[in-house]
UniProtKB/TrEMBL annotation, chain A:
Entry protein name: AAA+ ATPase domain-containing protein
Signal peptide annotation: none
A molecular-function term among this protein's GO annotations: ATP binding
SMART domains assigned: AAA
Pfam family, one: AAA_5
Residue span, AAA+ ATPase domain: 38-216
Stored InterPro entries: AAA+_ATPase, ATPase_dyneun-rel_AAA, CbbQ/NirQ/NorQ/GpvN, P-loop_NTPase
Taxonomic source organism: Bradyrhizobium ivorense
From TrEMBL, chain B:
Protein name: VWA containing CoxE family protein
Domain of life where this protein originates: Bacteria
Coiled coil location: none
Matches recorded under Pfam families: VWA_CoxE (PF05762)
SUPFAM superfamilies, per the entry: vWA-like (SSF53300)
Natural source organism: Bradyrhizobium ivorense
Annotated segments matching region Disordered: 72-109
Length: 315, 458
């Protein structure tokens, strides 16, 4: 149970996540620390690829807990997120029990007595046996707690948000036939959103709101260092500097941390020792995902490389 | 410290961050965990618990910095005065002996405030100001006109009367001390004034803004002053955001009670068609389609400007808008509005068709000739204009055909109802073919008109 104990300090969170290869900024560490201290879900917003989902994975790995992931999409409903009755099994059981019915009701003389006897078997078909737990219910049933990742909540319908409210505030769900199921151990809940639509106030109110933006240059260098150990220091500085320059452009999709890591891997694979015009031009498609963006960035490559290298000299 | 937190929450609300009681409880629990020692952590904690969007985070961050930068008491000490200080502490007991008769029960003849100022105890002065601010309920400050009142109240609470008496007494006996006290008083006054100004910044913002917006909302759009145009634009954007929040909910709604037999059968095929799961018919709502015809001649232009701005900032709710501008003739302006900033777009539109004398008949004819097919039975047509056609042929027959083709025809007229039909106004003639005719001269009326139009699609 030592794993589920709240962590002692913000620094402990930072180092714990770092051990899993997730370099967290101070704000992220504070959020994780607070969410454990006051038992609140974290709602993480930010552009794609800055490590929102990674954060949940890192927390799960660090605290040695199971991670349960619920990917949201339009049309996701109760039956797929929370629980479902095993209809086929229920049907099968009724068929089997048909033969038994005579034996069970054999002793009853009147219709009324038979009904009374039937009632004693009452809720057999709507019991735990026939419930198929979906991610949300699974998360509540984990004996050692877990990390529940509700990914891209903004993709789901507005009604689905309301479904989450009970879980988020009280860590319990109500199944009409069974009553309320409370969490065995409160799960650590992480919700992520790309701000595709505004989430409801009720949902936001129940969460700590963490916005992860693009990291500062120093932090991003550390992230690349931990994820791509093979990269040399000068190249790392140059490429992160270059990416920061690219982000200053007005592009359709700015390169984020995951692209930076991919690019670092590509550069290592190509055995580049430092950035030059040719290699950047050839690998720019790793960084930028739209043709228009690549066209916009290409004329600037040389200038950006020069800038990035200069920065490297001084820092 | 609880008191301070509460004041901070109020300041945060003033800065436009919606802090609900539940959120303030969360914030307090969080603060209890992290403590006050590290200001950066405290700041992060507030940003995490209170602010729920990026804009709010920015506003709250600023608010935090402002709140925790208490104005420092102004230090009047120079090296020379410090030397004086030494003399003074020697001289004080001597004055004490003199003053006993006038000082009454007090052991020293100067009031506590004067003592504080003379001893240059900055923390004591800060605390005194904070206490006096509390006593004067400084956090209730709302308008800049209240600054004087609060300044006086705080100084009174700090015992300025006693200080003045002290200064008067001293002038005769010890002019040097009196002068120092006088300086210190000026300094103190400055510090308190800073504190009051800061409080106004913290707590007054919301109220002042509300007041200004309320005035703007009810001001005739056609006559607002150029310096207010920018404020008006931001107000219109606020209105757009509000409408967007209200109407951008999904347009699917279940029609309970109507079984969708086809889908039910298909869904239950696995159980041999025994309907375990039922599917209900859904009703799809149309997204609003709007065709806007805006008069941009003379006095109506400004209203059209704001109207177009409002309609086009509603793109999340209304995704199909075609706008047309006319005075003497009519052109389509959708692209101009979509691609350029409001200022540039309006300038371009004006240079193309603006400021002519309006000819409704001709403009309607232009519309019918080229764009009549944009109107479908789902379209709401909005005409914005004063219907003053300079006694030219009004061509109400075209308006009738537009009405027949469209779902609704709404006429927004910036003129008051009183003047409709007088002079060259053709309003009564046009009104017969309109689903609704309403006056639309202020931002408030504009909001209501657009809100009603969008609501018909819900």
């Amino acid at each position: 149970m030592a794993d589920t104990r709240p962590t002692a300090s913000i620094e402990a969170v930072e180092s714990g996540l770092a051990a899993q290869g997730y370099i967290a900024s101070r704000q992220i560490a504070t959020a994780v620390y607070l969410s454990q201290q006051i038992d609140k879900p974290i709602l993480v917003e930010g552009p794609a690829g800055v490590g929102k989902t990674e954060l949940a994975k890192a927390i799960a790995a660090w605290r040695g807990m199971k991670m349960i992931r619920l990917q949201c999409y339009e049309g996701l409903d109760e039956a797929k997120a929370l629980y479902e009755w095993k209809y086929a099994k229920q049907l099968l059981y009724t068929q089997i029990l048909k033969d038994k019915l005579g034996e069970v009701l054999g002793g009853a003389q009147t219709l009324g007595a038979a009904l009374d006897q039937l009632h004693t078997f009452g809720d057999v078909f709507f019991s735990k046996e026939f419930v198929e737990p979906r991610p949300l219910l699974q998360a509540l049933e984990q004996p050692n707690g877990c990390v529940l990742l509700i990914d891209e909540i903004d993709k789901s319908d507005a009604e689905f948000e309301s479904l989450l409210l009970e879980i988020l505030s009280d860590f319990q769900v109500t199944i009409p036939e069974l009553g309320t199921v409370a969490a065995v151990a409160p799960p650590t809940v992480i919700l992520t959103s790309n701000s595709e639509r505004d989430l409801g106030d009720a949902l936001k109110r129940r969460c700590l709101h963490l916005h992860i933006g693009f990291p500062e240059q120093r932090l991003e260098e550390r992230i690349v260092e931990s994820r791509v150990p093979g990269i040399s220091q000068t190249l790392r500085k140059q490429m992160v500097g270059f990416i920061h320059e690219i982000r200053s452009l007005d592009l359709k999709k700015l390169p984020s941390v995951s692209e930076a890591i991919d690019w670092a891997r590509v550069l290592v694979l190509l055995q580049a020792s430092e950035l030059d015009h040719e290699i950047v031009r050839d690998t720019l498609n790793v960084l930028l995902k739209y043709e228009a963006d690549i066209e916009a960035a290409t004329p600037q490559i040389s200038a950006f490389i020069a800038k990035a290298s200069r920065q490297g000299v001084f820092s | 410290m609880r008191e301070n937190l509460h004041r901070f929450f109020r300041a945060a609300r003033g800065a436009g961050v919606r802090v609900s009681p539940a959120e303030s409880i969360d914030a307090m629990r969080a603060v209890a965990q992290v403590g006050f020692a590290d200001r950066a952590v405290l700041r992060d904690t507030f940003l995490l618990t209170l602010a729920k969007t990026q804009d709010e985070k920015r506003a709250l961050g600023d608010c935090f910095d402002l709140f925790f930068s208490q104005p420092e008491p102004q230090q009047e000490t120079s090296e020379q005065q410090k030397a004086d200080d030494q003399n003074q502490s020697g001289g004080n007991p001597q004055a004490d002996g003199h003053g006993d008769s006038s000082g009454g029960a007090e052991s020293e003849n100067v009031g506590p405030l004067a003592q504080m100022l003379l001893s240059q105890d900055r923390t004591a002065i800060s605390t005194a100001i904070a206490n006096a601010s509390g006593a004067a309920s400084l956090s209730d400050i709302r308008y800049f006109t209240q600054r004087g009142i609060f300044l006086t109240r705080i100084l009174d609470a700090m015992g300025i009367q006693r200080l003045r008496d002290d200064i008067d007494n001293m002038t005769a006996r010890n002019p040097a001390v009196a002068e120092r006290l006088q300086d210190a008083l000026t300094g103190l006054r400055g510090t308190v004034r800073d504190a009051v100004s800061q409080a106004l910044l913290l707590y007054g913002r919301e109220e002042t803004e509300n007041l200004r917006n309320e005035i703007l909302r009810n001001a005739p759009l056609a006559r607002i002053e150029p310096r207010q145009v920018e404020q008006m634009r931001s107000l219109i954007r606020q209105i757009a955001r509000r409408l967007r929040e209200r109407y951008s909910k999904p347009r699917k709604r279940q029609r309970r009670g109507h079984l969708d037999v086809r889908r039910t059968l298909r869904r239950n095929a696995a159980w041999g068609g025994v309907p375990f799961l039922t599917a209900w018919k859904r009703k799809h709502r149309d997204r609003p389609k709007i065709v806007a015809l805006c008069d941009v001649s003379g006095s109506v232009a400004r209203v059209s400007d704001f109207f177009l701005l409002l309609i086009h900032s509603l793109h999340e709710v209304v995704d199909d808008v075609r706008s047309f501008a006319f005075s003497g003739h009519l052109i389509e302006v959708s692209d101009i509005l979509a691609k350029k900033s409001p200022e540039e777009a309006m300038k371009e539109i004006m240079s193309k068709v603006g400021f002519g004398s309006s000819d409704y008949g001709n403009s309607f004819a232009d519309f019918e000739h080229e764009w009549m097919n944009t109107i479908t039975p789902q379209t709401t047509v909005i005409v914005l204009g004063d219907a003053r056609s300079n006694n030219l042929d009004p061509r109400a027959d075209i308006l009738r055909r537009i009405d027949e083709r469209s779902k609704r025809l709404v006429w927004l007229n910036p003129e008051g109802r009183m003047t409709w039909g007088f002079g060259d106004s053709e309003m009564p003639r046009y009104a017969t073919f309109c689903t609704v005719v309403r006056q639309c001269a202020t931002a408030k009326q504009l909001e209501r008109a657009v809100s009603d139009i969008v609501a018909t699609y819900q």
